[in-house]
Design the sequence.
């Protein structure tokens, strides 16, 4: 934005020095930020390069071009004398898990978010307060008891069961976000629709929901990424190989990563992370505005 | 009747989930803590045995110390680094696009799936000549390969969590810095203040509340999250990176001592409740609750 001391007075001889004197903060800032951020950038660049190169120079710089590491996408791959199960089963499970999660999240949070944002009823304050408390409260602490609940319901070792748990742990945040969008919608629209003979339910569905499309898009993407990346719940509550998702699949390859070639591992990791990066590119501005609970990954 | 029927109908899916996965599990956690339930999943009440066990557990001093190191170290890293990143990318670099670029880059560790993110760390610190750090140090320093992950396990755990957590502080601090009126900076500059003085005398004092918020929030998260540790070191080598919440998880899902695991978790539940209440009290959450304008 606008710095006040912007123009250097054109004093001929030491104008360069003056500029340097005024801009060295900026230069230093760029330099420091670049140095700090370099490890992150390099790590991801290196992941990409490793997945398409044949060997490394001095164990550091990837070199030579090949697509061989990506062959797990179209054929069986043997690692350390053992044939890897096809990645497509795990991919399908991950899509199912993340997609189902997204649908549940959107339906439940738009219903609850609208109610909390725009209806008056006994207990409203209490409900709002509990959404905030549940959002702050780390649900991961209840993992042991949730294991018991899932077991009792016969939902242990099923993707649906874990999906429900994930929805529950994620929903306070989604409600909190979508409520903010509902708060912004003009009341005149709602009043007009009510005068025209809608009831609150049809107002919600036909009039207000289209107004919060950006919010719905945001929680959809956010839920999908969260579901796609989920590890701990699936690791804890899923035992059967046919229910594996990509996170667990990848972990299984890492398990013997001393034997494995890094190329295959990098390619599989990239395959897994690709949708996340894609979504991130489109939504990073919004994501950065959102309060996402630091380090709280469940 | 009608006044509450529709709202609660709309809220019912949410409420059912809350009851199923928060309320009932919370009660079960409390009850489990007083049983010695194991893999047989039988309820057998054992009184205060589990809590006595906590006080006599020979591993516990190490675990408490590890938890302090992990939480303290990561928190420090997150707040300091988050602030430095925010300051550099928001105040010093006023060019908006560059600032966004750097902040987006720092979001990458947070949005990456944990398994992939940890994989990158495992790779970088891998033992033997194929580890990236070992290869680099062989080229530049000519030293022998080291087993970084067992030598400096806690440091690496803090670093890995710090890179994820720093972006949280960065976002909060960035918006706090942006919220400072530009006039104040102009006035300071007219008075001849240096950039350093502006940082120290104007920006830092205004960061008091954001720093408090980030600290309490992250304290809560760090005390209870263990996903990255589980993936990175699994608590090892030996118990070097085993923190309280991970210990509870291990006791329950590896040792199948659900009762003892629940007792350990219960201690954290109370801590979390206390911190949550503190946070709600400190940071006026009431103003977020707006009233409805119909009915």
Sequence:
């Amino acid at each position: 934005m606008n710095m006040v001391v912007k123009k250097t007075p054109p004093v001929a001889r030491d104008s360069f020095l003056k500029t340097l004197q005024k801009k060295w903060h900026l230069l230093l800032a760029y330099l420091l930020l670049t140095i700090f951020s370099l490890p992150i950038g390099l790590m991801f660049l290196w992941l990409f390069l490793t997945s398409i190169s044949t060997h490394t120079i001095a164990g550091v710089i990837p070199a030579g071009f090949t697509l061989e590491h990506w062959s797990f996408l179209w054929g069986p791959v043997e690692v350390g004398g053992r044939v890897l199960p096809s990645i497509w089963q795990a991919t399908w499970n991950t899509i199912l898990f993340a997609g189902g999660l997204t649908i549940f999240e959107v339906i439940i949070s738009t219903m609850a978010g609208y109610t909390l944002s725009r209806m008056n009823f006994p207990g409203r304050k209490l409900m709002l307060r509990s959404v905030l408390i549940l959002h702050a409260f780390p649900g991961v602490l209840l993992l042991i008891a949730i294991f018991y609940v899932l077991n009792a319901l016969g939902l242990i070792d099923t993707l649906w069961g874990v999906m429900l748990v994930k929805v529950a742990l994620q929903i306070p945040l989604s409600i909190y976000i979508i409520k903010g969008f509902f708060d912004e919608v003009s009341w005149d629209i709602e009043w007009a629709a009510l005068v025209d003979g809608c009831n609150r339910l049809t107002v919600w569905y036909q009039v207000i929901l289209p107004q919060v499309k950006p919010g719905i898009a945001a929680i959809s993407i956010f839920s999908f990424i969260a579901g796609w990346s989920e590890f701990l719940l699936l690791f804890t509550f899923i035992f059967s190989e046919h229910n594996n998702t990509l996170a667990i699949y990848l972990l299984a390859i890492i398990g013997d990563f001393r034997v494995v070639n890094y190329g295959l591992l990098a390619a599989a990791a990239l395959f897994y992370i690709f949708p996340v990066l894609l979504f991130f590119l489109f939504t990073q501005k919004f994501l950065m505005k959102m309060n996402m609970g630091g380090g709280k990954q469940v | 009747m009608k006044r509450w029927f529709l709202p609660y109908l709309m809220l019912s899916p949410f409420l059912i989930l809350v009851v199923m996965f928060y309320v009932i599990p919370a009660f079960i956690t409390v009850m489990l803590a007083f049983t010695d339930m194991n893999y047989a999943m039988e309820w057998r009440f054992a009184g205060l045995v589990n809590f006595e066990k906590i006080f006599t557990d020979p591993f516990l001093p190490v675990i408490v110390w590890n938890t302090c190191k992990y939480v303290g170290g990561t928190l420090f890293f997150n707040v300091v680094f988050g602030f430095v990143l925010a300051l550099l990318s928001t105040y010093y670099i006023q060019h908006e696009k560059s600032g966004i670029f750097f902040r987006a880059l720092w979001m990458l560790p947070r949005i990456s799936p944990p398994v992939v993110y940890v994989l990158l760390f495992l790779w970088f610190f891998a033992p033997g000549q194929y580890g990236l750090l070992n290869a680099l140090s062989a080229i530049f320093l000519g030293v022998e390969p080291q087993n970084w992950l067992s030598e400096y396990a806690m440091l690496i755990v803090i670093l890995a969590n710090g890179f994820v957590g720093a972006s949280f502080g960065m976002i909060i601090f960035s918006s706090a810095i942006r919220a400072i009126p530009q006039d104040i900076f102009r006035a300071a500059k007219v008075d001849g203040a240096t950039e350093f003085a502006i940082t120290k005398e104007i920006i830092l004092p205004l960061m008091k509340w954001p720093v408090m918020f980030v600290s309490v929030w992250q304290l809560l998260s760090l005390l209870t999250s263990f996903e990255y540790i589980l993936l990175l070191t699994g608590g090892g080598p030996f118990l070097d990176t085993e923190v309280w919440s991970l210990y509870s998880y291990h006791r329950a899902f590896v040792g199948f001592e659900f009762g003892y695991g629940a007792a350990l978790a219960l201690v954290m539940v109370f801590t979390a409740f206390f911190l949550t209440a503190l946070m709600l009290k400190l940071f006026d959450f009431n103003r977020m609750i707006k009233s409805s304008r119909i009915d």
